[in-house]
Amino acid sequence: MKAFVTGVGGQLGHDVMNELARRGYEGVGSDIQPEYSGVKDGSAVTGMPYVPLDITDDEAVKKTIRGIQPDVIVHCAAWTNVDGAEDPEKKPIVHRINAEGTKNIAEAAKAADAKMVYISTDYVFDGQGERPWKPDDRNYAPLNYYGQTKLEGELAVAGTLEKYFIVRIAWVFGLNGRNFIKTMVNVGRTHDTVRVVNDQIGTPTYCYDLARLLVDMIGTDKYGYYHATNEGGYISWYDFTCEIYRQAGMETRVIPVTTEEYGLSIAARPFNSRLDRSKLTENGFTPLPDWKDAVARYLKEADL
Fold first, then answer.
1. Model-level pTM?
2. Annotated active-site positions, please?
3. Residue 46 pLDDT
4. Of the candidates 34, 8, 30, 33, which has an alpha carbon nearest to the alpha carbon of residue 19?
């Protein structure tokens, strides 16, 4: 099986390439940078083929994928700066990447008769209530522009292809780039106390674990919508922070506050990021490990 992976300079794309290599699959990675720009630590991804690609360039996407002829495309590339997406000058760029770029990839996948995995988000919903969102819920109402463009990406994939996996995730952390754990550890080293919201509820997703699941998926024809985060129940960002500091052996005091009290976000954030993951086991996929276990492994791997 040959896989083409977009966004390999990011957290998830890096781990997907490594997982493909571990299993002996043929993989080609891409990102917008002229050369691979992710973690260069001697891991398998640095030995995999890389091609630069701007996913907003329709002709370049068609030409690249036609030349590679992949069996599956794992589309990890995206604009993920949620607050930055609210900038009026940036909105056209965000739309080109998340909506139009995804449509370009989907159309090229169709032409190549390739399966496609599209990584989406709980932000396609309105973030209200307490009921966990089910994969096949369709009561979309994104709270911010990032969520709106990711929803348009979902609709482009589902409207173009039959062989697709749309996988919604939340609260992502991995070795490449920035994430919440890295931020909180760094802040905790320079502050005696931190304020963290306690009224936004969800579950973290470790890219290393998610990559294993995605590579499991692409070997099947169990297409459709899925939710994938680590197991272990639903928590707040405050709960998450407390566990990070406990495992890291840090004594930084964590003060719970409401989203309104915190008041620093530009984009509206969902209060309810609970994702129902039961469809994974119903379709024979192995769930991701407990999020506390994932935090422990990540802290060790990232040497934080």
1. 0.95
2. 146
3. 55
4. 8
Q: What is the DSSP string of 54-116?
A: -TT-HHHHHHHHHHH--SEEEE------TTGGG-TTTHHHHHIIIIIIHHHHHHHHHHTT-EE
- Supply angle C-alpha 154, 205, 161, rounded to 5: 20
Name the DSSP class of 124: G
Do β-strands 235-236 and 201-202 pair in parallel, antiparallel, or remain unpaired?
antiparallel
Q: pLDDT by residue (tens digit) across 37-70? A: 655 554 445 578 899 999 999 999 999 999 999 9
Could you give the percent of the chain with pLDDT greater than 90? Answer: 90
Does the domain formed by 2-175+204-229+275-288 have CATH 3.40.50.720? yes
- Helices in 112-206 by DSSP H: which ranges? 145-160, 180-190
Encoded tokens for 298: 């990540």
What does the pLDDT look like over 199-216, one tens digit per residue? 999 999 999 999 999 999
Domain ranges in the chain are 2-175+204-229+275-288
Q: Report the DSSP pairing between strands 205-206 and 164-169.
A: unpaired
Helices (H), the chain: 11-22, 58-68, 91-95, 102-111, 145-160, 180-190, 207-218, 237-248, 259-262, 278-282, 291-301
* CA-wise closest residue to 23 among 33, 31, 15: 15
